[in-house]
Amino acid sequence: MTELDPVIHAAARLRITATLAGLDEGDTITFPRLQELLDMTAGNLSTHLRKLEEAEYVAVVKAHRGRTPVTDVALTRRGRRAFEDYTDSLRSLLGGTP
Q1: Alpha-helix runs per DSSP H in 39-76
Q2: Nearest to 31 by CA among 78, 19, 66
Q3: Measuring CA to CA, how many Å separate 97 from each of 1, 3, 39, 92?
Q4: Is CATH 2.60.40.60 the classification given to domain 6-92?
Q5: Where are the beta strands (DSSP E) in 1-67?
Q6: Domain spans of the chain?
Q7: Which of the chain's termini has less CB crowding within 10 Å, N or C?
Q8: What pLDDT digit, counting tens, does each position of 38-58 carry?
């Protein structure tokens, strides 16, 4: 039986990863925009991003644009590969059911 990645499998992290996977490789999204798209609180999103960052699936970059602090989020290559493996595993599991 195929194992699903527990880092991605949590519902909130799956939503985050799927949203980031929809971006072109190398593209980023701002934290507030991601929060808006997913309708998550800042604290909840931060907690799940930290878990994904620890697994090196996402990169979170804090910078300033002028005097305004900005946090950009992107899926790493490792994260994109993990998401592809996750979706392949899920398809395999679903294909095995009657």
Answers
A1: 42-54
A2: 19
A3: 12, 15, 32, 9
A4: no
A5: 29-30, 58-65
A6: 6-92
A7: C
A8: 999 999 999 999 999 999 999
